[in-house]
C-alpha cells in the first residue's frame, strides 16, 4: 500500500485528465530523473586535481544512485520511456577510455549507476512474482503504465541487456585495466598505489594496515 501511495503522489492525482499543476510537476520530476545520470557522472573538478576517492565516497555515490533508481522505477510509465537514460549510458560506456584524466572516476560512477538500475529492476521483478496478480489488481486502471506490468518489466530488461551488450567489451577492458594491480606476478616494493587503495590498506587508523605492509598484502592477494 505504501508503494501505491507513493506512486500516486509522484504522479499527481493519477488520472488521465489530471490538472495542469499535476502535469507540470510530473514533467519536472521526469526531467530531474532523466538529467540525473549526466549530473551524477559528470566531473566538475579541475583537470589538475587528483581524482582519488575512498570507501566513504563510494558509499555516498551508491546511496545516491540507489535512491534515484528507486524513484525512477516508481515514477516511470510507458509515456516516459527509459531510452534517453539508456542512450546516455551506452554513449558513456562505449567511450569510457576516451576520458583521459578521469577515466577511472567516470568508469566507477558508471558501474554504480548501472548496478543501481539492475538491482532495482530485480527488486521490482521479485515483488511482482511475490504478489502475483494481486499487485496488478491493486494498481488499478489509472496506473496501467507503471513498471509492475509484466510486459513492461520484460521490455525494460531486454533494453538493459541490449544497452550493456553494446559496450560489454569496453567494460571488460576497463575492469581489467582498473584491477591490474591485483594480478598475480612480481610486485615491486615501491609500487605506486592508487589513493583509494592506500586509503583502504594504509593510514593512521589502528584498524588499517601500516603502509609498510600494504605491498605484501597486495602480493599475497
Automatic annotation (TrEMBL):
InterPro entries: TRM3/TARBP1. GO terms for biological process: tRNA methylation. GO terms for molecular function: tRNA (guanine) methyltransferase activity. The keyword ATP-binding does not apply. Keywords: Methyltransferase, Transferase. The keyword Methyltransferase applies. This is tRNA/rRNA methyltransferase SpoU family protein. It comes from Trifolium medium. The lineage of its organism: Eukaryota, Viridiplantae, Streptophyta, Embryophyta, Tracheophyta.
